[in-house]
């Protein structure tokens, strides 16, 4: 570890580098993986965590916001919890260790630790760019996760719930998941902590959809009010593949959820929906980039934010349409309900279009509760507090109901959202 | 049942006075029609009665069953039995019609210290009332008023009224945007609710609705005051002659 120190490290940066140093010899990986880890941690040490001067981190100055990182504790074990949707197949990763139970037909899985040990994980461990702090931290420290394959043509009857449960300390997980041609599945990627001690979590999912795959992927972030959660999902959509990606942030103190995807086959379609339920003193950032790389691909993005207390939220959405990607159709919107004077939300939609025959648009709104709707409900005898809660709920429920084909899923997500709102409103 | 005394009310935001010394008494069992030209304060009156915060009362009082309601908010007035059928029912995406009905009914019951309805009881009541008003079950599965036609919205208002069983019903231009068949259905719904312990205030621009909901009294509103009261023949007079003569006489 004879490295040049370019910056004066913050407490959090020191803690991350220390976590790596303390685990040398213990972190899984073959020669190539270990060497890459070394490079990633070296970069972290020399460039530090990103600040507002890095464009993609402008609204989330991680170096300032991340004050402390708890030490890694291999015993930070947490019990698995009930699945969100009854009857789901649960694959639990507890404190970064995969626990494989009986798998549904058409699904194969192995511990990601094995992919690290045999070196097959090395290509996926590369960072997406110099500003990929999440990829860097995760690549340096990842211990486990799951590598999952959905067979060609497989249609899963019940959702597959990937549970990452953490009680304290750190967890760094990866989930490479590939969906075979024509497969159909619902996956719930769920992050939660079981107590309020304040853990530090990074997680990267790497999802590929082969031709005609039809996937609903739900990220449910339910960390504790003292936790830091750095999440990333990367996806690649093949020909005629359909991904309905739904992200719900309902927890955490400092949260960054990145979504980086591309459509690489004609006819590919992305539906991105996000619900950010923000309260307390939390800071939550959803950053999205999508490359429409080939002609005739479509995407719609709707982000709905509900902000209480002194919470801060960020949505950055960037859609890039490549020169050859004619007939791209993309629509992005970000709507925010600000429910306190101290609540704050920044929205930055961007379109970069290099093709000349496309339909792309974006819009952003920030509002308070609609007073005409509120009066209508009061005039029917619904007390103001209840009426407000219903309207806030309605604001986000609208996009949950788009999943109407799966009633149990809609019911579960709606229940979770109203429980959060009841606690915070 | 309803006694409005020298009421003055203005738009809270800019202070424009709309109701200027209005007096009106409506007894239990009575159907009172409020007529008047555009801008006379008809809709404002309905909002002031139901407690919309965009308006403030600067003088006078509104007594409901002998008690002033000025200090009660809109939800309390509703729970006490005052119902406003909106001229433009509000669309609320994301709130299912059935859920809305159930919450409204049960919140009113809670306010009055009554037991909440069980789901089967609720379902039975809705099914009955919806059938009477020719409301299809599909409509009730949609979000509240979203994608409803003009007629469907008005029927949904009357459905809410039938389910909530208010004591004082205020119908604000319920006839606007209705074809004759829809008008009959709505009027039948209102007539079914007429009873000796219930009063209905029908606010309307035209005589047409009053052929179907026959009023006991007719009051002409102009510049925020009642300038003439009479029985149902007054409505026919207005239809024939217009408001001009009355306004001249009052000036």
From TrEMBL, chain B:
Residues 2-248 form the ABC transporter domain. Belongs to the ABC transporter superfamily. Ycf16 family. The keyword Cell cycle does not apply. The keyword Nucleotide-binding applies. It comes from the Bacteria. SMART domains: AAA. This is Fe-S cluster assembly ATPase SufC. Keywords: ATP-binding, Nucleotide-binding.
């Amino acid at each position: 570890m004879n490295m040049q120190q370019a910056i004066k490290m913050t407490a959090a940066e020191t803690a991350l580098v220390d976590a790596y140093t303390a685990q040398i010899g213990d972190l899984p990986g073959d020669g190539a993986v270990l060497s890459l880890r070394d490079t990633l941690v070296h970069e972290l040490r020399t460039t530090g965590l990103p600040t507002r001067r890095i464009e993609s981190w402008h609204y989330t100055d991680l170096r300032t916001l991340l004050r402390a990182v708890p030490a890694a504790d291999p015993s930070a074990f947490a019990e698995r919890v009930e699945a969100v949707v009854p009857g789901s197949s649960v694959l639990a990763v507890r404190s970064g260790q995969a626990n494989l139970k009986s798998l549904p037909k058409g699904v194969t899985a192995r511990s990601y630790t094995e992919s690290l040990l045999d070196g097959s994980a090395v290509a996926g461990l590369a960072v997406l760019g110099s500003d990929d702090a999440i990829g860097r931290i995760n690549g340096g420290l990842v211990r486990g996760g799951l590598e999952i394959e959905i067979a060609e043509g497989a249609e899963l009857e019940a959702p597959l719930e990937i549970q990452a449960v953490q009680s304290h300390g750190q967890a760094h997980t990866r989930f490479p998941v590939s969906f075979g041609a024509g497969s159909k599945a619902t996956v719930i990627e769920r992050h939660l902590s079981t107590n309020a001690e304040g853990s530090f979590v990074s997680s990267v999912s790497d999802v590929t959809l082969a031709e005609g795959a039809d996937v609903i992927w739900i990220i449910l972030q339910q960390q504790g009010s003292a936790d830091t959660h750095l999440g990333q999902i990367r996806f690649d959509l093949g020909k005629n593949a359909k991904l309905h990606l739904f992200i719900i942030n309902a927890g955490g103190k400092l949260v960054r959820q990145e979504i980086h995807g591309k459509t690489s086959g004609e006819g590919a379609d992305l539906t991105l929906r996000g619900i950010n339920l923000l309260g307390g003193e939390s800071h939550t950032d959803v950053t999205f980039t999508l490359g429409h790389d080939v002609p005739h691909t479509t995407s719609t993005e709707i982000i709905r934010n509900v902000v209480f207390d002194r919470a801060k939220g960020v949505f950055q959405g960037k859609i890039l349409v490549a020169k050859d990607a004619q007939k791209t159709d993309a629509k992005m919107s970000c709507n925010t309900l600000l429910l306190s004077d101290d609540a704050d939300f920044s929205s930055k939609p961007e379109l970069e279009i290099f093709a000349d025959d496309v339909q792309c648009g974006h819009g952003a709104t920030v509002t308070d509760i609609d007073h005409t709707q509120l009066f209508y409900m009061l005039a029917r005898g619904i007390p103001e507090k209840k009426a407000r809660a219903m309207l806030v709920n309605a604001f986000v429920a609208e996009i949950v109901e788009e999943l109407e084909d799966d009633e149990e899923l809609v019911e579960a997500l709606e229940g979770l959202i109203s429980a959060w709102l009841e606690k915070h409103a | 049942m309803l006694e409005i005394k020298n009421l003055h009310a203005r738009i809270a935001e800019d202070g424009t006075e709309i109701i200027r010394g209005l007096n009106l008494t409506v007894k239990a069992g009575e159907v009172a029609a409020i007529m008047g030209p555009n801008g006379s304060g008809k809709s404002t009156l309905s909002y002031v009665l139901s407690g919309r915060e965009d308006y403030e009362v600067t003088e006078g009082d509104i007594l409901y069953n002998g008690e002033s309601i000025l200090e009660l908010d809109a939800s309390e007035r509703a729970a006490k039995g005052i119902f406003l059928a909106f001229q433009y029912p509000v669309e609320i995406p994301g709130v299912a019609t059935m859920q809305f009905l159930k919450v409204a009914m049960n919140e009113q019951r809670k306010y009055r210290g009554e037991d909440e309805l069980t789901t089967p009881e609720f379902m039975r009541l809705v099914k009955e009332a919806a059938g009477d008003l020719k409301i299809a079950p599909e409509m009730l599965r949609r979000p509240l008023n979203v994608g409803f036609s003009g007629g469907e919205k008005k029927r949904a208002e009357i459905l809410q009224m039938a389910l909530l069983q208010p004591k004082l019903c205020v119908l604000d231009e319920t006839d606007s945007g209705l074809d004759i068949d829809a008008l009959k259905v709505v009027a039948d719904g209102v007539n079914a609710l007429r009873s000796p312990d219930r009063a209905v205030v029908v606010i309307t621009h035209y005589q047409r609705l009053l052929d179907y909901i026959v009023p006991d009294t007719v009051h002409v509103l102009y510049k925020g005051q009642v300038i003439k009261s009479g029985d149902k023949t007054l409505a026919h007079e207005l239809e024939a002659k217009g408001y001009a003569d009355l306004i001249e006489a009052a000036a």
